[in-house]
Specification:
Elements lengths: L8 H9 L6 E5 L4 E2 L3 H6 L6 E10 L6 H20 L9 E5 L12 H11 L3 E12 L5 H21 L10 H15 L1 H11 L8 H18 L1 H6 L1
Parallel strand pairs: 3-5
Antiparallel strand pairs: 1-4, 2-5, 3-4
Length: 234
Protein backbone atom coordinates (compact mmCIF):
# COMPACT_ATOMS: atom_id res chain seq x y z
CA UNK A 1 0.00 0.00 0.00
CA UNK A 2 1.45 3.37 -1.01
CA UNK A 3 0.55 6.47 1.02
CA UNK A 4 1.61 9.84 -0.33
CA UNK A 5 3.01 12.66 1.76
CA UNK A 6 4.77 12.74 5.10
CA UNK A 7 1.94 11.76 7.42
CA UNK A 8 4.04 9.85 9.95
CA UNK A 9 4.24 6.21 11.01
CA UNK A 10 1.16 6.24 13.24
CA UNK A 11 -1.17 7.65 10.58
CA UNK A 12 0.16 5.14 8.05
CA UNK A 13 -0.66 2.36 10.49
CA UNK A 14 -4.18 3.69 10.90
CA UNK A 15 -4.75 3.67 7.16
CA UNK A 16 -3.28 0.22 6.60
CA UNK A 17 -5.27 -1.39 9.43
CA UNK A 18 -8.48 0.07 7.99
CA UNK A 19 -8.16 -2.13 4.89
CA UNK A 20 -6.67 -5.29 6.45
CA UNK A 21 -9.01 -8.29 6.57
CA UNK A 22 -6.83 -10.71 8.59
CA UNK A 23 -7.47 -11.62 12.23
CA UNK A 24 -4.14 -10.23 13.44
CA UNK A 25 -1.73 -7.54 12.34
CA UNK A 26 1.96 -7.35 13.26
CA UNK A 27 3.84 -4.06 13.67
CA UNK A 28 7.60 -3.71 13.27
CA UNK A 29 10.48 -1.35 12.52
CA UNK A 30 12.47 -1.35 9.28
CA UNK A 31 15.71 -2.37 11.03
CA UNK A 32 14.23 -5.23 13.08
CA UNK A 33 15.30 -8.77 12.17
CA UNK A 34 12.78 -11.38 13.35
CA UNK A 35 13.58 -14.92 14.42
CA UNK A 36 11.79 -17.33 12.03
CA UNK A 37 9.20 -18.40 14.63
CA UNK A 38 8.65 -14.95 16.21
CA UNK A 39 5.22 -14.24 14.71
CA UNK A 40 3.97 -17.74 15.52
CA UNK A 41 4.98 -17.27 19.15
CA UNK A 42 3.29 -13.88 19.29
CA UNK A 43 -0.03 -15.30 18.10
CA UNK A 44 0.21 -18.22 20.55
CA UNK A 45 -0.13 -15.82 23.50
CA UNK A 46 -3.60 -14.61 22.56
CA UNK A 47 -6.71 -15.57 24.50
CA UNK A 48 -10.23 -14.13 24.64
CA UNK A 49 -9.26 -11.30 27.02
CA UNK A 50 -6.00 -10.36 25.24
CA UNK A 51 -6.02 -7.64 22.60
CA UNK A 52 -2.29 -7.12 22.09
CA UNK A 53 0.91 -9.16 22.50
CA UNK A 54 4.40 -7.65 22.66
CA UNK A 55 7.54 -9.54 21.68
CA UNK A 56 11.10 -9.19 22.91
CA UNK A 57 13.67 -6.89 21.36
CA UNK A 58 17.26 -7.94 21.88
CA UNK A 59 20.34 -5.89 21.09
CA UNK A 60 23.31 -7.53 19.44
CA UNK A 61 26.48 -7.96 21.48
CA UNK A 62 28.48 -5.84 19.04
CA UNK A 63 26.17 -2.85 19.53
CA UNK A 64 28.00 0.38 20.29
CA UNK A 65 25.98 1.57 23.29
CA UNK A 66 26.28 -0.97 26.10
CA UNK A 67 24.19 1.13 28.46
CA UNK A 68 21.23 0.81 26.12
CA UNK A 69 21.49 -2.98 26.24
CA UNK A 70 21.60 -2.93 30.04
CA UNK A 71 18.63 -0.54 30.18
CA UNK A 72 16.64 -2.75 27.83
CA UNK A 73 17.34 -5.90 29.87
CA UNK A 74 15.88 -4.10 32.88
CA UNK A 75 12.81 -3.13 30.82
CA UNK A 76 12.37 -6.76 29.76
CA UNK A 77 12.43 -7.86 33.39
CA UNK A 78 9.71 -5.31 34.25
CA UNK A 79 7.57 -6.46 31.30
CA UNK A 80 7.73 -10.08 32.42
CA UNK A 81 6.49 -9.10 35.88
CA UNK A 82 3.76 -6.83 34.47
CA UNK A 83 2.48 -9.53 32.15
CA UNK A 84 2.25 -12.04 35.00
CA UNK A 85 0.65 -9.52 37.32
CA UNK A 86 -1.91 -7.98 34.98
CA UNK A 87 -1.10 -6.20 31.71
CA UNK A 88 1.86 -4.52 30.04
CA UNK A 89 2.00 -0.73 30.25
CA UNK A 90 3.84 -0.21 26.96
CA UNK A 91 4.58 -2.02 23.74
CA UNK A 92 7.66 -2.21 21.57
CA UNK A 93 7.64 -0.71 18.11
CA UNK A 94 9.99 -3.40 16.85
CA UNK A 95 7.66 -6.32 17.53
CA UNK A 96 4.04 -6.33 18.65
CA UNK A 97 0.74 -7.55 17.30
CA UNK A 98 -2.92 -6.78 17.89
CA UNK A 99 -6.19 -8.36 16.96
CA UNK A 100 -7.37 -6.38 13.95
CA UNK A 101 -10.74 -5.78 15.59
CA UNK A 102 -9.01 -4.61 18.80
CA UNK A 103 -6.89 -1.96 17.08
CA UNK A 104 -7.78 1.59 18.09
CA UNK A 105 -7.03 4.37 15.53
CA UNK A 106 -4.61 6.88 17.03
CA UNK A 107 -3.77 10.58 16.65
CA UNK A 108 -0.84 10.91 14.25
CA UNK A 109 1.41 12.71 16.77
CA UNK A 110 1.56 9.95 19.40
CA UNK A 111 4.00 7.06 19.79
CA UNK A 112 1.94 4.17 18.48
CA UNK A 113 3.70 1.37 20.39
CA UNK A 114 2.93 3.17 23.67
CA UNK A 115 -0.45 4.68 22.80
CA UNK A 116 -1.94 1.55 21.22
CA UNK A 117 -1.49 -0.69 24.29
CA UNK A 118 -2.98 2.06 26.48
CA UNK A 119 -5.96 2.40 24.13
CA UNK A 120 -6.47 -1.36 24.13
CA UNK A 121 -6.41 -1.48 27.94
CA UNK A 122 -8.98 1.33 27.99
CA UNK A 123 -11.17 -0.74 25.69
CA UNK A 124 -11.20 -3.57 28.25
CA UNK A 125 -8.54 -5.91 26.84
CA UNK A 126 -5.14 -6.96 28.23
CA UNK A 127 -1.65 -6.58 26.78
CA UNK A 128 0.64 -9.57 27.29
CA UNK A 129 4.34 -10.29 26.82
CA UNK A 130 5.86 -13.05 24.68
CA UNK A 131 9.57 -13.14 25.65
CA UNK A 132 10.26 -16.04 23.30
CA UNK A 133 9.07 -14.03 20.25
CA UNK A 134 12.41 -12.39 19.47
CA UNK A 135 13.66 -9.71 17.12
CA UNK A 136 17.17 -8.26 16.91
CA UNK A 137 18.54 -4.74 16.44
CA UNK A 138 21.72 -2.73 16.94
CA UNK A 139 21.78 0.21 19.34
CA UNK A 140 22.42 3.73 18.11
CA UNK A 141 25.70 4.80 16.56
CA UNK A 142 26.65 7.12 19.42
CA UNK A 143 25.66 8.22 22.89
CA UNK A 144 24.43 11.54 21.47
CA UNK A 145 22.08 9.84 19.01
CA UNK A 146 20.66 7.62 21.75
CA UNK A 147 20.22 10.60 24.07
CA UNK A 148 18.35 12.57 21.38
CA UNK A 149 16.14 9.56 20.69
CA UNK A 150 15.38 9.07 24.39
CA UNK A 151 14.49 12.74 24.85
CA UNK A 152 12.14 12.61 21.87
CA UNK A 153 10.50 9.43 23.16
CA UNK A 154 9.98 10.79 26.67
CA UNK A 155 8.40 14.03 25.43
CA UNK A 156 5.97 12.22 23.14
CA UNK A 157 5.26 9.60 25.81
CA UNK A 158 4.23 12.31 28.25
CA UNK A 159 1.80 13.63 25.66
CA UNK A 160 0.47 10.11 25.21
CA UNK A 161 -0.16 9.69 28.93
CA UNK A 162 -1.96 13.03 28.94
CA UNK A 163 -4.22 11.68 26.16
CA UNK A 164 -4.99 8.60 28.28
CA UNK A 165 -4.90 10.23 31.72
CA UNK A 166 -8.09 8.40 32.67
CA UNK A 167 -5.96 5.27 33.09
CA UNK A 168 -4.33 6.95 36.12
CA UNK A 169 -7.68 6.99 37.93
CA UNK A 170 -7.36 4.37 40.71
CA UNK A 171 -11.15 4.15 41.08
CA UNK A 172 -11.72 2.98 37.50
CA UNK A 173 -8.37 1.22 36.99
CA UNK A 174 -7.10 0.24 40.47
CA UNK A 175 -4.39 -2.13 39.21
CA UNK A 176 -3.35 -0.56 35.94
CA UNK A 177 -3.21 2.98 37.34
CA UNK A 178 -0.57 1.78 39.81
CA UNK A 179 1.37 0.10 37.01
CA UNK A 180 1.29 3.13 34.75
CA UNK A 181 2.28 5.54 37.50
CA UNK A 182 5.11 3.40 38.87
CA UNK A 183 6.54 2.37 35.49
CA UNK A 184 6.29 5.65 33.60
CA UNK A 185 5.18 8.68 35.60
CA UNK A 186 7.35 8.03 38.64
CA UNK A 187 10.39 7.57 36.41
CA UNK A 188 9.76 10.95 34.79
CA UNK A 189 9.59 12.51 38.26
CA UNK A 190 13.03 11.16 39.16
CA UNK A 191 14.81 14.57 38.77
CA UNK A 192 12.56 15.96 41.52
CA UNK A 193 13.06 12.95 43.78
CA UNK A 194 16.84 13.26 43.28
CA UNK A 195 16.75 16.87 44.43
CA UNK A 196 14.64 15.94 47.44
CA UNK A 197 17.26 13.34 48.33
CA UNK A 198 19.96 15.94 47.74
CA UNK A 199 18.33 18.32 50.22
CA UNK A 200 18.08 15.55 52.80
CA UNK A 201 21.87 15.24 52.71
CA UNK A 202 22.34 18.52 54.58
CA UNK A 203 23.24 18.13 58.28
CA UNK A 204 20.50 17.16 60.66
CA UNK A 205 20.39 16.84 64.40
CA UNK A 206 20.05 13.07 64.70
CA UNK A 207 23.39 12.10 63.10
CA UNK A 208 26.92 13.62 63.04
CA UNK A 209 27.65 16.23 60.38
CA UNK A 210 30.41 14.01 58.93
CA UNK A 211 27.82 11.42 57.95
CA UNK A 212 25.84 13.94 55.90
CA UNK A 213 28.98 15.36 54.26
CA UNK A 214 30.06 11.90 53.10
CA UNK A 215 26.55 11.13 51.83
CA UNK A 216 26.42 14.43 49.95
CA UNK A 217 29.85 13.79 48.40
CA UNK A 218 28.77 10.35 47.18
CA UNK A 219 25.63 11.75 45.61
CA UNK A 220 27.49 14.58 43.88
CA UNK A 221 30.02 12.02 42.63
CA UNK A 222 27.22 10.00 41.08
CA UNK A 223 25.88 13.12 39.34
CA UNK A 224 29.37 13.84 38.00
CA UNK A 225 29.85 10.31 36.66
CA UNK A 226 26.45 10.35 34.96
CA UNK A 227 27.62 13.38 32.93
CA UNK A 228 31.20 12.21 32.39
CA UNK A 229 30.76 11.24 28.74
CA UNK A 230 29.21 14.59 27.90
CA UNK A 231 32.06 16.44 29.63
CA UNK A 232 34.66 14.46 27.69
CA UNK A 233 32.88 15.16 24.41
CA UNK A 234 32.87 18.88 25.06
Amino acid sequence: MRIGGRVGKTERQNQVVSIVDTDFIVFSDANSMYEPDAIQKLIAQFSDDVGCVVGELRYRDDSDIEGESFYWKFEQFIKKLESRFNSLVTGNGSIYTTRTNSYVPLPRDVISNFAEPLAIVQSGKLVKYAPDAVTWENTGDSVDSELSRRIRIVIRSRNTVAEHRGLLNPIHYPTFSFQLFSHKVLRWLSPFTHWCTHLKCFPGRSLPATYWVVLLAIQCGCYFLSNWDGLLTE
